[in-house]
Automatic annotation (TrEMBL):
Subunit structure as annotated in this protein's UniProt entry: Homotetramer.
Keyword set includes Disulfide bond: no
GO biological process, one term: L-serine biosynthetic process
Pathway the protein contributes to: Amino-acid biosynthesis; L-serine biosynthesis; L-serine from 3-phospho-D-glycerate: step 1/3
Listed name of the protein: D-3-phosphoglycerate dehydrogenase
Residues passing through the membrane, by range: none
Highest taxon in the source lineage: Eukaryota
Claim: Acetylation is one of the keywords in the record: yes
Keywords: Acetylation, Amino-acid biosynthesis, NAD, Oxidoreductase, Phosphoprotein, Serine biosynthesis
S-adenosyl-L-homocysteine hydrolase NAD binding domain mapped to chain residues: 189-343
Cited Pfam families: 2-Hacid_dh, 2-Hacid_dh_C, PGDH_inter
Family (UniProt): Belongs to the D-isomer specific 2-hydroxyacid dehydrogenase family.
Organism field: Macleaya cordata (Five-seeded plume-poppy)
Amino acid sequence: MAATSISNLLSTPSLKKSSFSSSSSSSLSWRISLPSAFTAVPRNTRRAESFVVMAMDAKPTVLVAEKLGQAGLELLKDFANVDCSYNLSQEELCTKISLCDALIVRSGTKVSREVFESSGGRLKVVGRAGVGIDNVDLSAATEHGCLVVNAPTANTVAAAEHGIALLTAMARNIAQADASVKAGKWLRNKYVGVSLVGKTLAVMGFGKVGSEVARRAKGLGMHVIAHDPYAPADRARAIGVELVSFDEALKTADFISLHMPLTPATSKVLNDEAFAKMKKGVRIVNVARGGVIDEEALVRALNTGIVAQAALDVFTVEPPSQDSPLVQHENVTATPHLGASTMEAQEGVAIEIAEAVVGALKGELAATAVNAPMVPAEVLSELAPYVVLAEKLGRLAVQLVAGGSGVKSVKVTYASARAPDDLDTRLLRAMITKGLIEPISSVFVNLVNADFTAKQRGLRITEERILLDGSPENPLEFVQVQIANVESKFASAISESGEIKVVGMVKDGIPHLTKVGSFEVDVSMEGSLILCRQVD
Ligand SMILES: NC(=O)C1=CN([C@@H]2O[C@H](COP(=O)(O)OP(=O)(O)OC[C@H]3O[C@@H](n4cnc5c(N)ncnc54)[C@H](O)[C@@H]3O)[C@@H](O)[C@H]2O)C=CC1
Ligand SMILES: O=C(O)C(=O)COP(=O)(O)O
């Protein structure tokens, strides 16, 4: 798991210690608070309460809301208080969540906006012990600065194997024949199946699961095509799979296997219009999400024989109602969302998610973050001192602002000898945003919600690069933060072009302030700082 510890990137209010302070100002001197990377004030009662909870009990609390493998639970218990409470109603979840720093779920728990709102800012991370994150309200998570991580790899093979199991079982009527034998019947003519060899399988969604299904289906002698607008052609070529358009896939397939995520774009992609384009007698497997199929349209297509059979592991509403015409259809084979349910996959998923959640609670950036930029560990560690500098420059700049015109437009300039695509500035921008917003508002800002919060406050942050000559040994030479159209409490901070301007650089791993307005300075940005103008 690639993760590096730069704790303030993901800090949320309940882990913060108090340190921000403002003091009276004059036009000549102004005391600036430059908190360390870990500090800021709990600013409202709710946050103050959660701060107290953390202070009394340093161990974070993780709520595990669905069954998780033992190895994952052990990992969590080494670091946190673990509350395993299954089958909670939404109301119970909302009540419990205000006492939890992390929540771990599978596909059976809806992590709605209400859950984030009920957490009172304490919830720092939601871990999805699996792939699909359609049961988590990602916008709400982001707005609340709550990191969402998933476990994207450990159940790939299990899901692919279940897809193949459904494909073969469907083609040979295994489930129906088994039920009839158990009912005392011996219907050898009724359950004549169809062969797979030489048939065309269309894999819809050629990601991790889709490509493993394709690989296995080729081993069964099938001709495999795939539709995925975002899949790299060389990956398909390497497996011997042809990438085709959506319509082409529908038109030519004898079997269709669904492996795309449920998103607004994939919701009900198999609808009446799509079924009308399919070969009569097509067979469909779905181990992705029920919502990618219009289930009423599928029943119609089964009744008219366009679709000969369907094998479904997932449903729009889970569990589906007992009298669902889809589940009860004689040509449908159904399993209760078992794609990821092998001993091996569940153990792997539990470890993968426990590591990601513990890492996030320690302030690390997990490689499996779903709603925050994923930055490689080596880049993170190289940028670490610049991340601290960025936040401090933002804090300094905004504390110099006076007057009623507000902070609306901020320009950040990065001077570097690195090629533009060799310097990831997302972390720096997020930390400058944190520095700019936290001292003047009651919201907390972290890497997850920085862009959202800036946008919501109407703060426009533009970035500019100055490409320097010379050896690109350090990622950055200097960073400049410029606030436009404002007056300053410290008149000397206004540059010749009329903006508040502060510049900083990293020297021997320590952030330094090197320019205020048009004045060159060289001050280590540690502890408190008093700016005063002096006639020498
Ligand atoms: N039944 C079960 O227990 C399990 C179900 N799943 C489901 O399977 C899905 C796929 O899982 P992975 O392969 O691990 O994810 P993945 O992210 O590796 O692959 C998804 C693929 O779908 C493609 N895609 C996105 N929009 C598409 C569209 N409109 N048309 C065609 N392709 C599109 C993406 O480009 C990507 O290549 C998950 O999102 C999850 O919902 C995954 C594991 C277990
Ligand atoms: O990983 C996924 O997307 C799955 O659908 C598996 O769901 P589950 O964790 O078994 O509820």
